[in-house]
């Protein structure tokens, strides 16, 4: 086996937890049943790797077969690494078709036109999502399989999710995507996170939204105060806050975002520092919210009073616009901060 | 300014009403549960509020409040400032044995000393007791509930020969001598 | 390093004539100060927070301390503890202490107590003195401890790695207190450790057994972090802080961390605008610090309508270093005229 293949295999064995590795190798279908059973998953990883290596040499496995393992692993457990969301804009009638074969052939042809040495693997999953693995090479160098880019695209939607893309490859990928999907360009949605399903739900507004309703019996349903001896003086206020929180951030299981970043470029306007308020330059800063589940935390802040209502558009834009990176500038003719897309 | 008045309503037989005022919803609910569960002899009603003044629409249905417990979480500065605002909406009659402070988070070493010091000064100037409690354990919460109930029974007049005012002179907060000489 | 007074009175007993409440008065130093450790009549509540601090003038530490040793101090993030005075600690016996401590660690490991240390053998402990950190005559010299070890299958030529380091220091201590200590006691009240928890507790245990002292956790409360933020910002004109980063933690479910990184020039402008008219460059008052923090918090509130005061300030960092409320600090440069004045 080639050195590159050996390196890739050992890296895969090192990185993938044993339980998942066993599952993925089972789905790989390149090892016979007996070979698979001969592997001992209770060994230390380096021993397992050697055994696996000898089996692969027996079956004459090449690099492109090994990349299938990685693809299987990444698509089965999509919460590895950070995904960035992009959108295909200026779509024409031809675009957003559901023809996988057509898209695949077009994409491969287009990308290979743009760059000589590149290795592309594409696969369509049952949920209509297309997974693309790209190993980039240079003009004189072979594709680097140790740092692949992953792209996930749901046909018939304009959204594309990208992980591990270097800046120098960005224009190439976007051009290939634009050509294959028959759209004008690819735009950064400014949304990123580790959980692919959460990003998908947030972009496509698939989480459970709540709309204002006059007949909310929310708190009574939840039976927060079962005891008749306990009465909440501010129950109406509590219900109102709960309602607002649900409206802004959703209900049920919320998409799992980890961070939200705001680049502030607004003027300082507080009392007590008139010198500062008078000057024209903005008071620059960057605010970053982080939590294991950001939307849940923010929802709790609103319902518990740590965030006052009405909820500021800066926070509600996370769910309403489906993004978590914002550049906030002052409105030209007003004093309310305005969100704007960052320039890329 | 709408004040909460202690004697504007008639008391009810064998009943005691306590008002818990504080920012922390979870702790309030748990404490209220513990208070109601612990008391068997008397009917105890617990009313929860985030801050004073209380909403006017509840004025009629609200019973006479026998004890106001101001819950302060030392871990948050907002809790202390919100308590200070609430104090302004209490009629002075309450401070004759019908108010007490319940402090949580005093063990947290990341809390600045000044917060507790300033709370102590407030409690001393108002002649109120200052109770400390542990809010993270069930044992701490039931201990807090027990102490609140002890004070509540007296201030509701359910303990013979004891009045709220008398009790408060015994258990009210006082400044330790070193803090005294700072001023 | 500045150190906070341990709330307990030292084991040596009450110092004679010490009836004063603890009062904070900082003195200039290399960037590190020690507030007076006052002896209260045994009351925990006798801690008075300083209302103003002197702005330290920079004392060029590189003139006094060996650069290699400085490099050791600025490399790591240190976890702080306070120590009561050490009984019969002699700076001249450091070599013997090195042997005793390494023997102690090995024996504890053999007893199976410190299992997390792993397969390493051949612990070598080195005690050394860092001259120059002590500020006055009364300060004891800083003692630096390193634990080296070789992994089990290392060759002969392999250099042992440093797996743990720590130091005990006293800088700018209150001379009255220091002189009032009974003879035989050495006061090195600040203990900084970097390395695994198990080794840290072993080292502490050895010290406790050998010198009859006791260790306690030192946490940095939010007021102290606010002082740091203000004072570092105030030094921006001397040496750029490059950024001012503040991190709050809000008790939401799940807990929410909010970090606010301010552009250094803008932070400096804000700091200047809250300084009182008649303030000299030398002292800053608590009012100014409060106004500075209020300014940042209300600018934040205007945008997000979230009350940062409902949470706790947990971390402050600039190019000069960082401080975390759990008692972890990092000093990035000793050339700063910054302050580590914990009270």
TrEMBL record, chain A:
It is found in: Chromosome, Centromere; Nucleus. This is Centromere protein N. Pfam families: CENP-N (PF05238). One of its GO terms (biological process) is chromosome segregation. Keywords: Centromere, Chromosome, Nucleus. GO terms for cellular component: chromosome, centromeric region; nucleoplasm. The gene is cenpn. Belongs to the CENP-N/CHL4 family.
Automatic annotation (TrEMBL), chain B:
Its main location: nucleus. Keywords: Centromere, Chromosome, Nucleus. Transmembrane segments: none annotated. Coiled coil: none annotated. It is found in: Chromosome, Centromere; Nucleus. It comes from the Eukaryota. GO terms for cellular component: chromosome, centromeric region; nucleus. InterPro entries: Centromere_Cenp-M (IPR020987), P-loop_NTPase (IPR027417). This is Centromere protein M. The lineage of its organism: Eukaryota, Metazoa, Chordata, Craniata, Vertebrata. The gene is pane1.
TrEMBL record, chain C:
Residues 1-25 are annotated as: Disordered. The keyword Nucleus applies. InterPro entries: CENP-L. It is found in: Chromosome, Centromere; Nucleus. It comes from the Eukaryota. One of its GO terms (cellular component) is nucleus. Keywords: Centromere, Chromosome, Nucleus. This is Centromere protein L.
């Amino acid at each position: 086996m080639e050195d590159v293949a050996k390196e890739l295999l050992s890296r895969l064995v090192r990185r993938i937890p044993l339980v998942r590795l066993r599952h993925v190798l089972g789905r790989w279908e390149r090892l016979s049943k007996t070979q698979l059973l001969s592997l001992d998953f209770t060994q230390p990883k380096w021993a397992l790797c050697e055994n696996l290596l000898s089996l692969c040499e027996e079956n004459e496995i090449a690099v492109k077969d090994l990349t299938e393992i990685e693809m299987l692993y990444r698509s089965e457990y999509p919460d590895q690494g950070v995904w960035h969301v992009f959108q295909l804009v200026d779509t024409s009638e031809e675009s957003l078709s559901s023809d996988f074969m057509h898209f695949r052939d077009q994409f491969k042809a287009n990308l290979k036109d743009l760059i000589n040495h590149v290795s592309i693997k594409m696969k369509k999953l049952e949920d209509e999502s297309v997974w693309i693995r790209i190993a980039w090479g240079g003009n004189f160098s072979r594709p680097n399989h140790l740092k692949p880019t992953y792209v996930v695209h749901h046909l018939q939607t304009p959204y594309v999710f990208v992980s591990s893309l270097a800046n120098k490859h960005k224009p190439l990928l976007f051009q290939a995507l634009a050509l294959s999907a028959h759209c004008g360009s690819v735009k950064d949605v400014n949304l990123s996170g580790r959980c692919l399903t959460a990003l998908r739900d947030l972009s496509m507004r698939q989480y459970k939204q709540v709309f204002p309703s006059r007949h909310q019996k929310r708190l009574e349903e939840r039976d927060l105060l079962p005891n008749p001896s306990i009465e909440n003086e501010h129950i109406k206020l509590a219900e109102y806050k709960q309602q607002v929180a649900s409206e802004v951030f959703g209900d049920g299981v919320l998409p799992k975002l980890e961070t939200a970043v705001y680049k502030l470029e607004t003027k300082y306007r507080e009392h007590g520092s008139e010198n500062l308020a008078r000057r024209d330059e903005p008071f620059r800063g960057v605010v970053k919210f982080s939590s294991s589940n950001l939307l849940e935390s923010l929802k709790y802040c609103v319902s518990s009073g740590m965030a006052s209502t009405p909820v500021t558009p800066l926070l509600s834009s996370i769910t309403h616009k489906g993004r978590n990176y914002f550049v906030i500038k002052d409105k030209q003719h007003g004093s309310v901060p305005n969100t704007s897309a960052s320039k890329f | 300014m709408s004040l909460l008045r202690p004697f504007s309503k008639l008391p009810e037989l064998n009943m005691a009403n306590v008002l818990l005022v504080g920012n922390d919803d979870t702790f309030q609910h748990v404490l209220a549960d513990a208070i109601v569960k612990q008391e068997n002899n008397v009917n105890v009603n617990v009313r929860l509020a985030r801050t004073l003044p209380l909403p006017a629409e509840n004025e009629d249905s609200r019973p006479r409040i026998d004890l106001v417990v101001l819950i302060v979480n030392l871990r948050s500065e907002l809790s202390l400032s919100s308590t200070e605002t609430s104090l302004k909406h209490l009629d002075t009659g309450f401070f004759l044995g019908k108010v007490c402070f319940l402090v949580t988070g005093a063990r947290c070493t990341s809390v600045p000393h000044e917060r507790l010091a300033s709370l102590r000064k407030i409690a001393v100037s108002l002649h109120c007791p200052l109770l400390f409690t542990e809010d993270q354990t069930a044992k701490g919460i039931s201990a807090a509930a027990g102490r609140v109930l002890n004070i509540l029974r007296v201030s509701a007049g359910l303990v013979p020969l004891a009045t709220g005012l008398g009790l408060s002179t015994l258990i009210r907060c006082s400044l330790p001598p070193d803090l005294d000489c700072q001023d | 390093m500045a150190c906070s007074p341990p709330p307990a009175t030292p084991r040596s007993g009450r110092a004679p004539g010490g009836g004063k409440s603890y009062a904070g008065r900082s003195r200039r130093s290399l960037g590190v100060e020690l507030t007076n450790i006052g002896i209260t009549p045994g009351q925990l509540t006798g801690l008075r927070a300083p209302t103003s601090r002197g702005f330290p003038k920079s004392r060029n530490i590189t003139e006094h301390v060996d650069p290699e040793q400085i490099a050791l101090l600025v490399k790591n993030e240190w976890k702080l503890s306070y120590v009561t005075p050490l009984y019969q600690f002699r700076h001249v016996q450091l070599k013997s202490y090195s042997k005793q401590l390494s023997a102690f660690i090995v024996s504890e490991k053999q007893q199976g107590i410190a299992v997390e240390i792993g397969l390493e053998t051949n612990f070598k402990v080195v005690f050394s003195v860092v001259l120059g950190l002590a500020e006055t005559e009364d300060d004891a010299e800083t003692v630096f401890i390193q634990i080296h070890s070789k992994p089990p299958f290392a060759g002969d030529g392999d250099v042992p790695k440093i797996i743990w380091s720590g130091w005990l220091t006293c800088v700018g201590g209150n001379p009255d207190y220091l002189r009032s200590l009974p003879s035989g006691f050495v006061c090195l009240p600040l203990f900084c450790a970097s390395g695994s928890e198990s080794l840290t507790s072993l080292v502490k245990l050895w010290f406790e057994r050998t010198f009859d002292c006791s260790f306690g956790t030192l946490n940095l409360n939010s007021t102290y972090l606010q002082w740091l933020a203000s004072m570092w910002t105030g030094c921006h004109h001397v040496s750029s802080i490059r950024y001012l980063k503040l991190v709050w933690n809000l008790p939401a479910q799940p807990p929410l961390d909010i970090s606010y990184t301010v552009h250094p020039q803008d932070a400096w402008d804000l700091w200047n605008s809250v300084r009182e008219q008649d303030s000299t460059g030398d002292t800053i008052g608590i009012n100014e610090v409060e106004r500075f923090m209020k300014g940042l918090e209300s600018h934040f509130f205007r945008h997000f309508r979230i009350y940062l005061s409902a949470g706790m300030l947990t971390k402050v960092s600039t190019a000069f270093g960082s401080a975390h409320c759990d008692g972890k600090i990092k000093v990035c440069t000793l050339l700063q005229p910054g302050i580590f004045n914990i009270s």
